[in-house]
Amino acid sequence: MEREQAFTRLTNRVAVHQSAYWHTNSGLVRTAEGYILVDPGILKAELDAIAAFSAGVGVRAGLVTHAHWDHMLWSARFGREVARFASEGAVTQIQAERYRFLQEMAEFERVNGLGESQWDHPLLFQEQPLSSGSHFIGGLEVQVVPLPGHSAGQCGFYFAGEGVLFCGDTLSDEEVPTLSAGPQDLTPYQQSLDFLAGLAAGARWIVPGHGQLANPAEALRRLDSDHAYLEKLSKLGPADLEGDLNALGARILEELAEKRADSEAGWLMHLENLALLKRVLIGRAGG
């Protein structure tokens, strides 16, 4: 693994750029026809750096792991007509929630005092549905694998020839697993982890949506931590959630020796999981 300024080269074909915000990872996979960009982001300066890295070769296609705004950005410098793809479920969510995504992006710019628009808004939300299974893009094979849980339509992209797996917002060393809908996410998330166990064991590099890259041994260690965290959440009932969520949250982390929620952002993610479970489970119990 070699560093090239802000880029980490995993193989001769694959490099990863990490954003200053949330350590969001963007992949660049070189094919015979140009680069495939996976989850390009986040800031304008970072998108410009990715464009400069791919200059001379060009961009062949874009891939989006899931429908959260920080994973589906684009720049005119990548090409206005370049095809972009996401899973069928993610495309449906993108189109249904595009207004909310724009609101979240505007709030991000405001809170961080960026002062100017960071993104080419007319180029957003143009993803086309891509079915699960093997596809050839620019002559390079990519396997599209469903990974629901964090987001219903989330998928991973495995470039078997390179041994590199982009696994969306799973297997992070900096974030606990996060839910989008509530208790119904828990079983699909656990099943996604079970599937990832076999896939990650055979890969050379695993690229999470956020955090540091992992070899198979490290990815499987994170997977065990994710399983333990989700198992703990799955055992919570309405009575557990009626009290102080801060105290409950701290107790869960202590029992699991879970350190990924020690940061302010990580703690808020953990607390939001509990708040979401409370809204759903207590509402359900109340009839």
List the helices and strands and how they pair.
Layout: E1 2-4, E2 7-9, E3 14-18, E4 25-31, E5 34-38, H1 44-54, E6 59-63, E7 83-87, H2 88-96, H3 98-111, E8 128-130, E9 133-137, E10 140-146, E11 155-159, E12 164-166, H4 186-201, E13 205-207, H5 216-234, H6 238-241, H7 245-256, H8 264-285
Parallel strand pairs: 5-6, 6-7, 7-8, 12-13
Antiparallel strand pairs: 1-2, 2-3, 3-4, 4-5, 9-10, 10-11, 11-12
Care to describe what's here?
With 287 residues, the protein is of the alpha/beta class. It folds into two domains: 2-223, 4-Layer Sandwich (Metallo-beta-lactamase, Chain A); 236-287, no CATH class. The protein is 37% helix and 21% strand. It is built from eight helices and 13 strands. It has helices spanning 44-54, 88-96, 98-111, 186-201, 216-234, 238-241, 245-256, 264-285, and strands at 2-4, 7-9, 14-18, 25-31, 34-38, 59-63, 83-87, 128-130, 133-137, 140-146, 155-159, 164-166, 205-207. The strands form two sheets. The protein has an eight-stranded mixed β-sheet with strand order 1-2-3-4-5-6-7-8. The protein has a five-stranded mixed β-sheet with strand order 9-10-11-12-13, covered by helices on one side. Helix 4 (186-201) runs antiparallel to helix 5 (216-234). The chain is globular and about 60 Å long. The relative contact order is 0.12. The model has no long low-confidence stretch (mean pLDDT 95).
Task: Sum up the structure in keywords.
five-stranded mixed β-sheet; alpha/beta; Metallo-beta-lactamase, Chain A; about 290 residues; 2 domains
